[in-house]
UniProtKB/TrEMBL annotation:
This is Alpha/beta hydrolase. Residues 56-147 form the BD-FAE-like domain. One of its GO terms (molecular function) is hydrolase activity. Pfam families: BD-FAE. The keyword Hydrolase applies. It comes from Muricoccus vinaceus.
Length: 275
């Protein structure tokens, strides 16, 4: 199997640049009509998040953007906010330092500290810290998966698990296949760092609702990553829902499904949040 080809998501989507431009445009449109604010969760400029508030006691959707850990920004990751805020869900879009400036260990740590900030502060924006649902796409799906695993929460003063559920869009959950690919040119992973940052190889919680999906036009490896992780979550005792891919959907545009009421992914996520 040609893993370089299998993990080249852009090659499966000729219109990728138009979709990525739409990430920013739709986020800008959301910010034009919703109250929102940016907050720092750490000492460096990339350690920030955007909060779209809701009514008191609202569930919280914490979304982590993709970009193969080296691209995009929270400014590209608010397209789902209008639909969720309209359903009285507080939305948080997390930013993080990109590779290769940051190692994957650091990126994971930043996302965990962002979650700790949400726990400590989200009540000021109407959110209920006991109802945090983490979501992410592609690399963001991986990072959301790293918030599910156990063993790190106590150091940040968080309960374990620190989230009430998750929605994972075509994430990467076992990073070992990436070691010999072009992606490792900017990630600089070795076997040990790949293993310790692979949610599929780490202790998983039981009892959490987890929604997963991928695009119809994805490669077999991206599909396998989701299907294998869904089985691992189910074996751990999570309540797993795999949403069948929308016809003609791709690795990049499934993010828009999350923010579309009536879409199967949006509705499954809402149900898992009790919203």
């Amino acid at each position: 199997m040609d893993l370089d080809r299998e993990y080249n998501a852009r090659a499966t989507t000729p219109e990728v640049e138009e979709i990525i431009a739409a990430y920013r445009a739709r986020t800008d449109a959301a910010k034009a009509v919703l109250p929102w604010s940016t907050h720092s969760y750490g000492p460096t400029e990339p350690e920030r998040l955007d909060v779209y508030p809701a009514g008191a006691g609202a569930p919280v959707l914490v979304f982590i953007h993709g970009g193969y850990w080296r691209a995009l920004d929270s400014a590209d990751a608010g397209s789902m906010a209008p639909a969720f805020v309209a359903a009285d869900v507080c939305v948080v879009s997390v930013n993080y330092t990109l590779a290769p400036v940051a190692s994957l260990d650091r990126i994971v740590d930043e996302c965990r500290r962002a979650l700790a900030w949400v726990h400590g502060n989200i009540a000021r924006f109407g959110g209920d810290a006991s109802r945090i649902h983490v979501a992410g796409s592609s690399a963001g799906g991986h990072l959301a998966g790293m918030l599910l695993v156990g063993g790190w929460q106590a150091a940040l003063g968080l309960p374990e698990p620190a989230v009430a559920g998750a929605t994972l869009l075509s994430g990467l959950f076992d990073l070992r296949p990436l070691l010999g690919t072009h992606i490792n040119g900017w990630m600089s992973l070795d076997e040990a760092s790949a293993v310790r940052n692979s949610p599929a190889l780490l202790p998983l919680p039981s009892g959490l609702p987890v929604v997963l999906t991928y695009g119809e036009t994805e490669t077999s490896e991206f599909k396998r990553q989701t299907e294998d992780f869904a089985r691992r979550l189910g074996d751990a005792g999570c309540e797993v829902v795999v949403v069948p891919p929308r016809p003609r959907s791709n690795h990049f545009d499934i993010v828009f499904d999350l923010g579309e009421p009536g879409n199967a992914l949006h509705e499954a996520t809402r149900r898992s949040m009790g919203s």
